[in-house]
């Protein structure tokens, strides 16, 4: 009975280690990819994805409508399409939520 208990305890120990490894893996992965990015000279802004999230709408493609909105006409057009009330398509990224990475577009000819 003692042996059984011991192996059970060992099993729990291995399980806990695996569990910890599973939790830690994504963090380690992110850390490695971040440092790889630097060492490989990849774009710091987009990581060579060539696109960055729009800073105005934060990648959503819609911004809250307001008195300073430049897209009130678009809002009228899109209104029937059914975006959330009180929002208007982002006119910086054309409601795509993404922009071409300025860093990368400079490198391309
Ligand atoms: Zn935008
Ligand atoms: Zn870039």
Structural class: mainly alpha
Helicity, as a percent range? 40-55%
- The oligomerization state is single chain
Report the biggest beta sheet as strand number plus sense, adding barrel if it closes.
2 strands, antiparallel
Helix tally? 3
Percent of residues in beta strands: 5-15%
Keywords: Membrane, Transmembrane, Transmembrane helix
Transmembrane segments: 12-32
How would you describe this structure in keywords?
109 residues, mainly alpha, 2 domains, two-stranded antiparallel ribbon, 3 helices, binds zinc ion, membrane, transmembrane, transmembrane helix
Describe the protein's architecture and organization.
By secondary structure, the protein is mainly α. It has two domains: 1-41; 44-109, no CATH class. The chain is 49% helix and 11% strand. It is built from three helices and four strands, in the order αββαββα. The strands form two sheets. Strands 1-4 form a two-stranded antiparallel ribbon. Strands 2-3 form a two-stranded antiparallel sheet. The structure holds zinc ion (2 copies). The site of one zinc ion has 6 residues, from helix 3.
List the helices and strands and how they pair.
Layout: H1 2-40, E1 51-53, E2 62-64, H2 72-79, E3 87-89, E4 98-100, H3 102-107
Antiparallel strand pairs: 1-4, 2-3
The structure holds zinc ion (2 copies).
